[in-house]
Write a structure and sequence with these properties.
Blueprint (H helix, E strand, L loop, with lengths): L1 E5 L3 E5 L4 H15 L6 E5 L7 E4 L12
Parallel strand pairs: 2-3
Antiparallel strand pairs: 1-2, 3-4
Length: 67
């Protein structure tokens, strides 16, 4: 299992088996949604049926109250 940092900011958690497929899933989702341009701190790709995000604390602040 590997953890890789994209642009030194977003931690990508890869599965022990099927890392290439996991990278492909992330690339496809990013191309569709711009996922990596959002306030994402980590992307967990270890589960095959879901993509789990850890958001930056500022993204969790109520609208209008961000620092």
């Amino acid at each position: 299992r590997w953890n890789v940092f994209v642009d030194g900011a977003v931690e990508v958690r890869l599965p022990e088996a099927g890392a290439a497929l996991a990278w492909w899933r992330l690339a496809r989702r990013d191309a569709e949604t711009g996922l990596l341009d959002l306030a994402v701190r980590a992307v967990d790709l270890r589960a095959r049926d879901r993509l789990i995000l850890k958001l930056d604390q500022d993204a969790l602040s109520p609208i209008g109250q961000a620092a």
